[in-house]
Amino acid sequence: MSQATQRHDDTDEETLIEVRNLEKYYGDDGMFSPPPVKAVDGVDLDIKRGETFGLVGESGSGKSTLGRTLLRLEQATSGTVSFDGTDITTLEGSDLKRWRRNAQIVFQDPESSLNDRMTVGEIVREPLDAHDKGTERERRKRVMDLLSRVGLREEHYYRYPHQFSGGQRQRVGIARALALEPEFVVLDEPVSALDVSVQAKIITLLEDLQEEFDLTYLFIAHDLSVVRHICDRVAVMYLGKIMEVGETEELYEDPVNPYTKSLLSAIPRPDPTDESERTTLPGTPPSPRDPPQGCQFSTRCPAKIRPEGFEEVSEETWDAIERFREIVRERTRVELGTVDRVKRRAGLFSKYDDIDEAVKDLFDGVERPPVVDDHLTYAVEQVKAGHPQDARERLHEAFGSVCDRERPAHHQVGDRGRESYCHRHREEYDDVESAIRR
Ligand SMILES: Nc1ncnc2c1ncn2[C@@H]1O[C@H](COP(=O)(O)OP(=O)(O)OP(=O)(O)O)[C@@H](O)[C@H]1O
């Protein structure tokens, strides 16, 4: 049994933080502005008291924004965050200030997150000063205690961050976060910027502090192996949405969501020749300003459901169609400059000329049955005519399935609180595993 599982079994199941339908949009400035960035796009999750809850996902998936919104460092666009029963998204004034003591953050980059013009003592003391905690003498004593608790020495009080190594600076960041005796700490990539040998020490320190001060952690990370080691439960995030959540070991051993499977199989393996059951993650995530209308992962999903009538089309052809759709989708985002608009009026559409090349690259030697060909030909014409949106819509109409059209539900999987966001969990569809294997 891993350390993480052991600890989880020992904790009671009381929920400390309950997040419901949380949204955080950036740049939602009215009718005439571009669409907002949907950094957090309808998140539900429960964090239990005393646990370490991991949040993983590719860069830009919204992990930091979610962490910051839970702390009210960002104002939620909508939804609720109940902390011990109180919705903190609406707190104001002294209530907000009082609550803020309870929830702190440790940042990724100890290089830039500490003010280089303040001594280490001042940095750790600052939250105590801001909240008027104790007398000056008591604050000093508290800072000294904290420094020794995180493995620094009293004389470090008068030094400056630049005199410290990365690991020591992160210890200062941790001491500062603990100054006000919080219950909940967001650890935003706390070891990513450190050498591997230092990472292990900081992780051990965080585990010890958790035990000593009864802390609840939200641990945000790219590094899936660190998360496996330290977290009791983990949520996998993609384009602002939680794709799968569950107990860490169970989720790592047997991921059920196509995105989790892809992400986990992308972890480098000791034997690079071992290609067994490897799922690759093609392409890059779509823009969070223009996420897919259906499942957020639909444009890259290895288990995507096909629409009726196309079941017999070969994998190769289907793959080329999906990639072509991606290219057209990207074209709809290309802003035409003045010169292009003039050329367009004159019948010269240089910006879109290379669509023929894309089709050639994708479909050379690939079978194009008539049922596919008509739609492709129409789409290519529309792109060349400067109407990529029409092409996109036609392709969506022709080749779109439930994955393109509908947001999935979060399905319960098993009886240990696992949830996965995927249409494939509906009875009428083949399960994820057999779809991927096929
Ligand atoms: N202040 C902001 N204004 C506008 N867009 C933002 C802002 N902060 C984040 N974003 C956008 O929101 C999306 C999610 O970003 P976020 O930093 O939360 O992702 P992340 O998963 O933490 O990525 P990383 O691991 O790279 O930090 C990204 O598209 C990002 O560009």
TrEMBL record:
Looking up Gene3D superfamilies in the UniProt record yields: P-loop containing nucleotide triphosphate hydrolases (3.40.50.300)
Q: What's in the keyword line of the UniProt record?
A: ATP-binding, Nucleotide-binding, Transport
Segments spanning the bilayer are none
What Gene Ontology molecular function terms does this protein carry?
Answer: ATP binding; ATP hydrolysis activity
Keyword Nucleus among record annotations:
no
The UniProt family comment states: Belongs to the ABC transporter superfamily.
Name of protein: Peptide/nickel transport system ATP-binding protein
Source species of the chain: Halolamina salifodinae
**Lineage, broadest ranks:** Archaea, Methanobacteriati, Methanobacteriota, Stenosarchaea group, Halobacteria
